[in-house]
Predict the structure.
Amino acid sequence: LAKTTQPISMDSYEGQEVNITCSHNNIATNDYITWYQQFPSQGPRFIIQGYKTKVTNEVASLFIPADRKSSTLSLPRVSLSDTAVYYCLVGDNYNQGGKLIFGQGTELSVKP
Amino acid sequence: DAGITQSPRYKITETGRQVTLMCHQTWSHSYMFWYRQDLGHGLRLIYYSAAADITDKGEVPDGYVVSRSKTENFPLTLESATRSQTSVYFCASSDRAADTEAFFGQGTRLTVV
């Protein structure tokens, strides 16, 4: 299984862009990179997923360099409501047999 | 209503008792997962299932039993509850696993006294 490493915590202010980087040095060829967001007392929620280059949706962007050994979740103009824990997952259906393994996550705190 | 639901939302039980946490999804997703989350920590995979009648261990399976006789249900049983199993339990489902979106339930807060 590809191991992921993220910062434990980050602080930001409202209106700023936040970039959270995840390291996954032993990512396999078939692995996808997925980010989830979790608010207190709630289950995680899917944010974005990618395989290579850049992916953008209405919530975030995901930047993946050519070697795929890291990825960066970018949240534009954060607000207080973006305060949450963000998890980076790496994996595929086949080599892992379908497991979804979460790491420790990054606790993002957005201040006014 | 479409979605994934867990029951009960809150449960207090005594040490040594058997308790079952229920999880039901309405999408006919192939994959289902059980996680536990302890205060201030990330999610740890207990068991998962790729289809009805197919289950496999996750990271922390000891003390837990699962079954999946129907695609839509994935109950988690603590055969003899211990205080260390006090946690919040989340169920999730997905059409596939790592290369698609997983949907999580609201969680069951279990306290073992």
Remarks:
- DSSP finds no helices and eleven strands in chain B.
- The interface with chain A takes residues 31, 33, 35, 41-45, 48, 50, 56, 58-59, 90, 92, 94, 96-107 of chain B (CB under 8 Å).
